[in-house]
Specification:
- With about 325 residues, this protein is mostly helical.
């Protein structure tokens, strides 16, 4: 049903919305200049918590698949994202990140045999342009390493999203298990890099502890559970078109909590990015009928079943 897909989309959208609060929490609650430690504190505790909740470990090929997805979506994505944020001025990193839908359209053609459409490409370009109007300010010379890191972080998560859609999920593993596997792998990959680059963990006061607790629970455990649940029920392109909500949320939080002003140009950019986000949910390929998820065993036997009321919207 259309109402069911709207509900799933709305819940999935809460993930990038929560990620949009990260800048405020980082600047107002956390110790400065510890991006890798912050990434570690986001990923590993959340991953272990979800593993304890799900009580499911990978089996067979899913050991290396979980490792690959964890490296792409968390282990590589977090450090590259933070490196870009520290080396690029203003919101340029967010602008580069907002081209994720275009990456996913291309990767879906390569890995999922989904033919890209002009509508999808135009919608992705409008989303990136709208985000650019919101967050991009006057800049001087650009840092080449920062730009490469931003592009690599976007490519990394986009690849992880498409592969997650391609591989689906194994029998008996829900979104909690998938998120837990990937966050744990990503956290374990980040840990040695964080300690080598930044040294011992900083002393944490009550304010920093609250900030890390929020990022680990709401901004990571819950957010990634919603995100991977959405990947399982929507198309890869539809999910990725929700990513522009993250920088838009950051701009709104900055206006509401930090007293930052929003210019008419920024408001126009918000309207364009939000319009592209909505349009991205209406792109062909989303399927219709009832929203239903299938395990791998069910998918293998679907052609013998007579109770399927609509195409599966699951990875």
């Amino acid at each position: 049903m259309a109402a069911g897909r709207v509900a799933i989309t709305a819940l999935t959208a809460l993930a990038p919305v929560s990620w949009g609060t990260t800048y405020y929490v980082t600047t107002e609650f956390l110790p400065p200049d510890r991006p890798l430690f912050t990434g570690l504190m986001r990923a590993l505790p959340a991953g272990l918590l979800l593993l304890a909740f799900a009580r499911v470990l990978p089996r067979g090929a899913w050991w290396w698949r979980a490792g690959a997805l964890g490296a792409l979506n968390i282990g590589a994505f977090f450090p590259l994202l933070f490196l870009a944020a520290y080396r690029l001025p203003g919101g340029l990193a967010a602008v580069v990140g907002s081209v994720g839908p275009l990456f996913v359209v291309g990767l879906s053609a390569l890995l999922l045999s989904q033919r890209p459409t002009a509508r999808a490409l135009v919608t992705g370009a409008v989303a990136a342009f709208g985000v650019g109007l919101v967050v991009l300010k006057a800049v001087g010379a650009l840092d080449a390493l920062g730009v490469l890191a931003a592009l690599a972080s976007t490519a990394s998560m986009s690849t992880g999203t498409v592969l997650a859609k391609k591989w689906g999920r194994p029998e008996g593993a829900g979104p909690s298990a998938l998120a837990g596997w990937q966050l744990t792998v990503g956290g374990l990959l980040i840990a040695p890099v964080a300690f080598l680059a930044e040294g011992a963990p900083p002393a944490l006061g009550a304010r920093a502890a609250v900030g890390y607790l929020y990022l680990a629970l709401a901004g990571t455990a819950v957010a990634y559970w919603l995100w991977f649940r959405g990947i399982g029920r929507l198309t890869a392109t539809q999910v990725t078109f929700l990513i522009p909500l993250s920088p838009l949320t950051a701009a709104v939080v900055g206006w509401a909590a930090l007293g930052e002003s929003l210019t008419p140009v920024q408001l126009v950019g918000m309207a364009l990015a939000l319009g592209a986000t909505v349009a991205g949910q209406l792109l062909p390929g989303g399927g219709g009928g009832a929203v239903r998820t299938f395990s791998s065993a069910e998918r293998n036997g679907r052609k013998d079943s007579m109770d399927v009321t609509g195409p599966a919207l699951r990875r």
